[in-house]
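Data card: per-record layout.
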Amino acid sequence: MADGVVSQDILSTTMERYASKLIANLPKRSPALNYIAKNGRSTDGGFSGRVFRQPLEYGFNTNVQFYAGSEQFRVDRTEAFSHADFYMRQLVGTVIIEGIEEAMNDGKEAVINFTAAKIKNLERSLQMIVAESFHFDGTEHDGKGFSGIKQFVPDDPTTGSVGGLSAAEVDQRGRFWWRSQITKVDEIGAVHEAGMTVRPYTRSLNRLKINCTDGPDMPDMILSGSDHYVKILEEIQEKTMLTQRDKAGFGFNSICHGPMGDAAIILDQLQDADRTHMLNSEYIYQRKAKGRWMRNLDPTRPVNQDVSAKSIIGYGNLTIANRERQGVLLDT
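The structure for this 332-residue chain is written out next.
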């Protein structure tokens, strides 16, 4: 083979063999995306033209009524459904092998081992940027990044828009149905009754959970930054809690605390230290374009460069179907 072709062929073959493993490992750096993937909400469906169209059900069928005798039934047009549109976002990672690196790793076996190490580094780098993207607010990377939970569940849920829908949207009963919940610790405080003290973070979590709950539809994942996690841990560590990593937090440091039900309080070090997001993952989806999620591009050898390059691309975005069932806990 000609100079440079060896590394190019090995790079292409090794990355293509590794592609399926990379896809499976991609969400593992993020407790939230890991949970979403394990529960089947990482999907290649919902793409329509240029956007991922997320169906929404927000209102009531106004033709449901009590009636008497021969009273006519209502047959009004029901405005109970809508959709949110989330634009396709593009992610790319490229592995290169320079001619000098190939020379320093002389021999086919050495080049294969060197290439595998570079691809593992690519995997870790992709894991990190995708995990970080879960906490994006829509402005990162010049607005080219994935949508994230700070966009869906912002510090001020009364303004702005998500998926093309304004937070000022109301249903037939005048209810703001496209707004997330917010609780502030300093507004809740502690309570002291009959010799019992319920401390501020525990009390605030309880209040936020109530606001995010509708009957059996309740949060199943709580992501705390480092400061919040320590404060919550210190408040409840004398009470009953479970810290088994596999059961409580999908392999991450976490607490299972009785009042939170099945929702583990998970330490997410990519989360802002002074925030806790309480989420219902039933309504959060990682959307992927079919055939274009971690897809290998053809290997290239740039003109006038002693380099072999191989890229892998991912087209997708994070979408949300219900903001009401999501919330954020802030200090002030």
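Known properties of this structure: The chain has ten helices and 18 strands. The mean pLDDT is 85.

See the next section for split statistics.
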